[in-house]
Amino acid sequence: MSSKPPITATPELQFKAASGWLMLFFNLALLVGAVVFIVWSATHVATADGSASSNGIIGGCVALLFAVFMLCGYFTLQPNEARVLILFGHYRGTARKSGFHWANPFYARNRGSAPSKPALAPETSPRSRRVVRMASNFAGYQSLTTKLSLRANNFNSETLKVNDKRGNPVEIAAVVVWRVDNTAQAIFDVEDYGTYVEIQSESAIRSIASRYAYDHGEDNELTLRGGADEVAHALKEELQVRLAKAGVVVEEARLTHLAYAPEIAPAMLRRQQAQAIVAARQIIVQNAVGMVHMALHELDEKDVVKLDDERRAAMVSNLLVVLCGNSEASPVINTGTLYT
Description:
Layout: E1 18-19, H1 20-43, H2 51-70, E2 74-77, E3 81-87, E4 90-95, E5 99-102, E6 110-115, H3 126-136, E7 141-145, E8 147-149, E9 153-156, E10 160-163, E11 169-180, H4 183-188, H5 193-209, H6 228-243, E12 248-260, H7 265-301, H8 309-324
Antiparallel strand pairs: 1-5, 2-5, 3-4, 3-8, 6-7, 9-11, 10-11, 11-12
Helix pairs in contact: 1-2, 5-6, 7-8
């Protein structure tokens, strides 16, 4: 059974386009010359039958059409912008230098089509977004030009519901800063690199969320809430591996939303409150024991009163009640003795 060879990445080729200003001067000279030649040929009769005049007019018209055809080869590039040059399906190179350029007019202006993406309001719910995007696949297509932006782009993912490492449903979202680095891979190795970035980013966010617990992990265990920097670094590496096929470089990736899913949020809130109360009680008890020990030590050292074990136990109990109680202690005056 023969295995298919792996698909190699398309290398980017540098293309140096001709100066647009120089070619514009040549085109204008050719246009003016062709018009002058046609006029001169029409008014000049070299022979009695006018064959030379007709040949000159035909030649002038051909030159005029060629000059008009040459006018279709001009294009401009802004800083951090590139154009992929495709001639009858063959990749010839990428022009990256900004300015006014000229290239073969037969170079393609479009590189295919993709489903049109509707504009969605920021307050649109995730379910409505998915429905609108699915409907847009049948609504129509938009042409994709051979010009690419090399500037940094922001992709703010939708709020995704994912199960964390312990199976708890959480809501998570992230922002990804990316840019195109290899234009040949972005054009020829994926169908639409913009859609590819969106889908792979959401897939990477789900993968990262399932690797970590939301919070309260084991000893020295990273969590989504406690290890924000480490999780962001892991997300960036995961994205870079996935998006390298499209010639995209990930500049930064960071979580923008993290919360328990609504169905378990109340229970998790009560658990967090209980854990906070227990932690506070531990601190209160530790400090109260230290204060009781200090009080007994001071009484013995300064010989204020001699306490036997039973009176010492009663005093410890009373001090702990006063120090650890939630409300103010109400003193009870004992008119007898401790033993009656």
